[in-house]
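Z., the sequence and structure:
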Amino acid sequence: MIDASQLPPGPLVGLRVLELTDEKGQFCGKLLGDLGADVIKIEPPGGEVTRTIGPFLDDIPHLDRSLSFWHYNTSKRGITLNLETEDGRQLFRHLASNADVILETFHPGYLPALGLGYDDLSASNPGLVMCALTPFGQSGPWRDYATTDLLHMAAGGQMASCGYDESDVPDAPPIAPGGGNAWHMGCNYAYVGIMAALVYRSVTGHGQYIDASIHDACALTTEAAIPTYIYRGEGVIRQTGRHHAAQPTAPAQFRSKDGKYVLALVAGRLTPKYIKDLTELLDSYGMAGDLKDPKYQDPEVIEANAGHIINDLVANFIASLPQEEVYHAAQSRGFTWGAVYTPEELLDDGHLQDRGFWKEVEHPELGRRFIYPGEPAIYNGAPWRISGRAPLVGEHNRDVFCGELGLSAQDLVVLAEQGVV
């Protein structure tokens, strides 16, 4: 295994980020940290509530054993600070005076009410980039509404587009995609906004305030649903195992012999050339059927028999073979067919393994190493990499408050007794 400490610093080396986020914004901080920024995660004394989200290592609930917190908080340092106290606010101001970026997910108006808003902090740090990532933004009639990732998927349009064919599950309700999609959408757009603001600062010398809305991010990420309605006046229907559409499209998800699933994108691709290649594939297994008839080189015949080709020949072919064999046989002929993998199957994905995607991250306090998802892009210079595991509660208090702000060890003890750190 490559020792991360021996690798060159990432492309954002030298960038100081103060992160005050919960589940809504922690992924954005992870992106910045894994790319080399010095991200200091600031939590209330006792730890952020996201540390209570399971599952936990060995099923033992503990603030430092949340696997969710581990995943979203790599490559960060961690301190505790009570912003409700004057001493806490003063310490934060000191940190902010030398920060490049502040990322926060507090309720709109919370930090300004404490005297820690952008106008307050940028007065002594004009190059500061401050991003507030909130459910509905800093303005608008929904500004103060409470929400969750699931509610964002509902209000943002995603759920209405996800579900099943009427023939598969009659009267099926909308289905929510899993995995904190709304938080990820918001974090990705916040990250883009921060990077753009930093480029602007490099040209002008001026920082700026970014009002990032998760609801806006979701509304921007509905595939073709919104453009279809705007430009064609048509809503979309939910479809099993494929994209929503204004009109029903041919099935694309089929069960393989081993009970798994294959996505065979055939509809819309049935040209004479495609039929010729498909015939060769199916015939190599003795399953081409009547597809070998020369009539199938006539586009009109192909169109008239599309249902037979897809629902009979392709479906039966996939049902006769294991998923992996179908997938690789189709890909070897250039077909856009894919295997439907479970998350745990990705750990054995030879392609990801060959690219070194999975990383071992050391947890010295446990004397163990754990596998983490790595970087989605390989840099030939400064790398995108996980530089360390998520911080323990208040792990870097001494480093930051004493080593950087000049407090003494006794000062830190007193502040802890007063509930400031």
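DSSP finds 18 helices and eleven strands in the chain. The chain has two domains: 16-220+356-418, 253-343.

Let me know what you think.
H.
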